[in-house]
Amino acid sequence: MGNTRIILDAGTHPKREGADNLPDLDSLDYDSIDAIIISHAHLDHAGAIPVLVRNQPNAKVFLTEESNELVESLLHNSVNVMTSQRDELDIPEFPLFTHSEINAIQPNWENRALRQEFTFGKNNEVTCEFYPAGHILGSVGVLLKCQDRSVFYTGDVHFEDQTLSKAAEFPTEGIDVLITETTRGAVPRRADYSRKQEIERLAAAIRDTIDRGGSTLIPLFAMGKSQELLLILHELKESGQLNKNIPVYVGGLTTKMTVTHDRFADTAHRHHRGFRFLQGGMDLIVASKKRKKKDRNRSIPYDSGRIYALSSGMMTENTVSHAFARNILPNERNSILFVGYAAADSPGGRLLEARGDKEFQLDEDSSPIAMRCQIERFDFSGHATRDELRDYARKVAASQIILVHGDEPARQWFLETLGADLPDSSINIANPGDVVAF
Ligand SMILES: [Zn+2]
Ligand SMILES: [Zn+2]
Question: Is the pLDDT assigned to residue 251 strictly greater than 90?
Fold first, then answer.
């Protein structure tokens, strides 16, 4: 914008391995960027920061205080994950960055609060303001203004209240260019969906499991989805829909992320303000025992009558949820309940696809496991539905719309639908390397 060069988000691709998961950073000249703005802490938005700033030593990094802390934890965890993948999957370029690199750059990141304008760039010509995005703790949409032109970037957005996160509050006036996520563009939400009913269905599945003497495994992303789910369980216990005495186990990275959520318990843009998960809010049992590396993929025994809320959400190899699944699967009293996204080729996604089969191949190296437990999927997406995003785009009626963060069919739906809704707007599917002038 003007004479200032800005990068919005610098993530890693969740489905690619090695340096392939990075954005095309080679197209950027050395020391050519003035500012990097991070919408939220998920790795597909923040995972490439250490690699990016290596060649952009004078770029300022702006984000919310919450995101700052979450990104730092996730990047350190990412180094650990990449280091073990280097050996196990034979990816010699991993890790793409180191703990000491993170420690060196993180103190320079600049925290910015919601709804407070700040300026940067050549002669401070760019004005920026963060708006709450309702997606996860600390997530924002980004409004940029320069020389009478304005750009709004949605980041990942949810326009409805979640149990923890309050709905997004985005501007609609005076936006010339809208850069919007399109995650759920390919599939409409069922017409009869209600979050309340989905929560009741979840409670019933857990009750049935406990009543028949089984245990429930809920595979969860450590950050965001875990805390949403834990708060749902808390509300269900408070309302009597679940027995207060059912033990809930968390572990690994989830614990660390929950500590951060507790530190920001008084932040304005959330429900249950002041509620702290680990300081009296809930009787969580923290499984802290570190397993040896060689034991990572081994099964872990479970006790009956319990809820195991464990990462990862897609039951990826070498994670706690993956290890638990091995023993949970063969017993018809148990259940595995999915509440988030599971890519089709992940163990979680394959398990959902295999529902009804008698056996399941949890990982390539071991023999199939009998599959007798109940398996259910619930919709607690942290992303806006396509109709909500369409309504928002129509209200904004930007002269230019750029579609990002969705698979091809998702972006295609928005291209066609918004093309018909807003015939005077220019709408682009931005592919890597495309130049869109405005
Ligand atoms: Zn996200
Ligand atoms: Zn995302």
Answer: no
Taking each helix axis from N to C end, the angle separating 386-396 and 408-421, rounded to the nearest 10 degrees, works out to 40
DSSP state of 293: G
Question: pLDDT (tens digit, 9 = 90+) per residue, 145-154?
Answer: 999 999 999 9
More confident of the two residues 10 and 363: 10
Structural domain of 345: 195-377
Ligand 1 ion: Cβ-proximal residues, 5 Å cutoff: 42, 156
Domain count, the chain: 2
Q: For residues 209 and 308, state if they share a domain.
A: yes
Looking at the CA of 404, name the nearest ligand: 2
Q: Are residues 230 and 305 in the same domain?
A: yes
Distance, in Å, from the CA atom of 271 to the CA atom of 137, rounded to the nearest integer, reads: 11
Q: How far is the CA of 383 from the centre of ligand 2 (A)?
A: 9
1 assigned to some structural domain: no
Q: Phi, psi at residue 368, to the nearest 5°?
A: -60, 150
Residue 22 sits in the same domain as residue 69: yes
Three-state DSSP class for 368? Answer: coil
Ligand nearest 138 Cα, by number? 1
CA of 104 to the centre of ligand 1 (A): 25
Q: Cβ distance 342 to 353 under 8 Å?
A: no
pLDDT at residue 288, as a whole number = 57
Q: How many helices (H) and strands (E) does the chain have?
A: 11, 19
Give per-residue pLDDT as tens, 59-69: 999 999 999 99
**Structure-token match 């829909």, residue found:** 241
Interval between CA 313 and ligand 2 midpoint (Å): 15
